Amino acid sequence: MPHIPLLPELIIVFGFCIIAIFLCFRVKLPAIVGVLITGVLVGPGGFGVVDDPHAVESIAELGVILLMFTIGLELSLGELKALKKPVLIGGGLQVLFTIALIFELGLTQGFDTGPAILAGFLVALSSTAIVIKLLQERSELAAPHGRIMLAVLIFQDIIVAPMMLLTPFLGSDSPDLGRSMMLLGAKAVGVIVVVWFLAKFVVPRLLLAVLRTRSRELFLLSVLVLCLAIAMFTAWVGLSISLGAFLAGLIIAQTDYALSALEGVHPFRDVFTSLFFVSIGMLLDVQFMVNNLPLVLGAAAAVLLCKAVVAGGATVVLGYPLRIAVLVGMGLSQVGEFSFVLAKVGSDAGLLTPENYQLFLAISILTMLAAPFCIAGSHRVSRWVSELPGLGAWRERSMVQEEPRSTLKDHLIIVGFGLGGRQLAQAAKSSNIAYCIVEMNPDTVRTERTKGEPISHGDAGLPEVLKHLGVEQAKVLAVVVADPLSARRVTQVAKSLNPAIRLVVRTRYVAEVDPLRHMGADDVVAEEFETSIEVFARVLRAYLVPHVTIERYAREVRQEGYELLRRGQPVHNPLHTLDNAFSGFEVSGLTVEEGAVLDGQTLEESGLRKRHGLTVVAVQRGEELFANPDGAFRLQAGDVAYLFGSQQDFASRVGLFEVRHKAWA
What we know:
This protein has 28 helices and ten strands. With 665 residues, the protein is α/β, with parallel strands linked by helices.
């Protein structure tokens, strides 16, 4: 039997990956954790199932290329514009201050300038794959802290390319480093010009020609060749191959075909990226980690703490509450996947000794393993920090920005000013209902104040903020925020301050209804449930079910449906009776032919309803439609009459509309 290189190793690696990912799924850990552990176990530092980690390294590099390519594909200029401030300021501060802090710590530990800067680069990046996956699973990506984390991760994904460009020069002993950097800058400008030309004139026309063939295989191959070709071009001119893949993604992202490209590349990316993380895990020397366990654990804890403090501080600078800062800080406290790529570049440049490289790998893998637990426990920690006695005065001052306490009575408090909050405020204004708004996004608050909205900046989950808004005198409080945990906290705090207040809470899923009601919510509106009602209502309208019947059914479902849907029990459906009553009936259109019996007759003269059991619901005459015509309406040749009746009556009365039928049946 012929030997196929790498096949045994790949079978072993992917077999272990399947087991590890399945176990991670059962204990609700991200798949990337299982993949990293797989690499540790099968590598030479573990059970030694795969003796040579470099055997799969060349294939694993494809994972990095495709990962960078999809990052470029997913970077929407519109999204970047909407998140401009948190991306540039939040992300910039987080990266800059993390690098500065780690650089200073590195110098105190005896590192030279180059390795100390590289250490800052490595620690500054967080794991996009882990953070986004966990936020999506927890339905927190649209929450304020989720949006900030997304913005910072976008900045990190952008800044990793310049880091890759700069890293090889950090270890240069050449006195002409400035000349080398100028040459690098010239190459970068040249690459940007080429990329701009391709994006503007070549790639859109090329992909359009490919798509006209309607061949998915040809399109996918074209996208992959484009990605690899640009990656090879950047490597040829001396820049990072990953940077080339990123630029290739940006090129296609500006066309109309980015989504199709992303769908085609995703499966390959996931497979090869998994292989990349396995190869990283293989590089870990378990014996080194065991021998230096106190150092590894202490350094990992220091990295988690430093990153949490810096990211949280950047969030505070953006104007967000302390609670949100803690959530963001703990969420971004791990080391990222692109740090492994940078570490490899730094190792090749002589910036990392083998011992320091192993120390970095051990620290990074530990912080990644800790990430799910940090994010899961961040809400509890944020509440504890927010309630510390020494922070009370600062917290209240930062939340309400020294505004006067509300003097309104029987007013409406709106928590959150997204689309739902805006619509509610407009309805309250039209109905002359006094209201005030509390929102955590400082930019939204600043913009809406210029429009005259009574909006305050603050965290409604804090008692002093709700007191400042007059919750004790308010009649209704409406919670329309995207974060389910924030909605629960606001509900609990508001009800404890004013048991008589009516709480209306919007949530995304039906599963949130019971917890919110137990915490004191009077009305809970689940988007998932209301969307299902709107869908069935539109479907029934398409089948000409009367509007009053649809409304009655929707009303009954709303009254009983939440409880019944959660229990999985059938809901009494009045349409079942309707369906049985009209079984065998239909609406059909028949054309009046010239010279037919009905040609020139009024509906009353035709006797269609009285004698033949057919009801005319509408008549189409040319471009004009006559709905529900009365008995005096006169039919003409060419009219299309839409009739309601039984299938049997239709079958026996079709001749009334045709020329051959000269007498009543």
